[in-house]
Predict the 3D structure of the following.
Amino acid sequence: MRLLRQLEFAFETTAALTSILSVRERRTTKSPGEGHLIGSSHDVDLESKAREILYELDANKLAFGIRVEWNSRLKTSAGRADYRHKLISLNPLLFAHPAEIDRTLRHELAHILAQFRAGRRRILPHGAEWRKACRDLGIADEKRCHNLPFPAKRYVARFMYRCPNCRQEFPRVHRARRAVACLACCRADNGGEFDARFRLVLVSCSGGL
Ligand SMILES: [Zn+2]
Ligand SMILES: [Zn+2]
């Protein structure tokens, strides 16, 4: 059970990790001429599937805004749900496991649907609301721990950073070497450019500094 918990933790935290790339890092990865494919791509088919599912569940407002992408920055996690941006990200490694794609999509959709129904109320990631959403989405037996079809790397986050604006926490394996800001807030308030107001603050670390 200990291992499963760790996997779950890895899943939940990878989501945060991918959204705190510093602007400099993002520019580097996007520079033309770089050999390997890094980044994300929109999936129109999966998106309309997600939309139809949500319409059937009378979540029309959510259906309107939902987006689905493939994101190569996901490492150990099969998928990720970003409620604020109504965005589901799927790991391209799932291409090799087609049967897992639909399930992962529904698992992530359940996270977004549960939060949508809860409104401003805070809910646990895999609590009663999420389980109810899973039932509605036809995956009643879904476990909170994602059964990754690919080997998960051991991942231990020692450093916890927090955005001073939205309070989102960002666990990291390594100490940040350069100024890192909350991408969501930089996008929302500064056109996606680095903004020192949203610079992440180290709030805790385990194992000594
Ligand atoms: Zn989950
Ligand atoms: Zn923020």
User: Anything to note?
Assistant: The beta strands are 40-42, 67-71, 79-82, 87-90, 159-162, 169-172, 201-205. The chain has a mean pLDDT of 77. The radius of gyration is 17 Å.
